[in-house]
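Let's sit down with a protein and look at its sequence and fold side by side. Go ahead whenever you are ready, and we will take it from there.
>
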Amino acid sequence: MTRPADAMQTTGTLALFGLAGLAAAAAVWYFNAPAGAPQASAPRAASVATAVVSAPTASPAQPGPAAPALPVSLAGSTPPRLPLDEHGHLRKVRAVRDFFDYFLTAQNEMPPKSLDALVRKEIAAQLDGTSAQPEALDVWQRYTAYRQALGSIERLSVPAQGNERESGSGSSHAGTADLDAMQTSLDERASLAGRTLGADWNEAFFGPDWRHAHYTLERLRIVRDTTLTDAQKAARLQALEESLPPEERAALARDRHARTTVDTIAKLEQRGMTIDELRAKATQALGPQAAERIVKMQQNDDAWHAKYADYAAQRARIDAMGLSPTERDVQIEQLRQHMFTNPAEALRAASLDR
């Protein structure tokens, strides 16, 4: 279950380069929620970023398409609130990026112009007539410019990555070159964000991400340095972590705790315990609150599998009726929708069917 630290840190670094959500985010939230709560690019890509070297400024709104309703993936949810300071101006904090990213989760469901119109509509709904409205529009334009330029860099980086893998397979030099390429990519992206977003918004949106990625790369260099003794490595790793701001050191500690928790849960589940045994072991290992969440999660999973087994039996009877493929698919879809009223459960059942 536990991966080598080197590989784990590499995975985390790559995720930061793409600025994707962490794979363990759901687990981290789960164990901190109240009980019962429901790529390496070459310098040649710099020419792409040159087009956005000057950050765009807010311009008068141009006529565009009418903003559509929330797409399916956002239906039933509420957009985050844009944070304001005591003077009514937009606060330069990560929550502003969270607001934009809320809508960007639906970017594959609608054309860019429609997505842009939707974001502008929600900005107006929250900030209409305030001094923060043009500020939010300006930051949205800057963030859009950053993402567009970043996409161009990523497309250009693919051939370079392929060539590096072919030429450096398996050698220690390739490992060093890989870290150097990651560093180049990270520096390029941070520089691009600084040019398009400006220093303040770059720090608000990505500051901790850039520092964590730099930390991860430096940690890998120390771990891989064969000229250092184990004691020297430990000392340098400790000094590296202490160089981070206090809140980021605390985040590292939470990440380590989350990984330990996930490993513990996996080991407990592999033993095939009863609910009472699971509760007792989890309480001993993680404490009573986390144990109750684990038990609830296990009970929900057991209930899901029981429901799916019932559904699968009824689906098998439909299969045995000798219907045409179209009639069979219609009846199975009706059965699935009847038994799984939660859309997420219906999708999960359909996935298992395939």
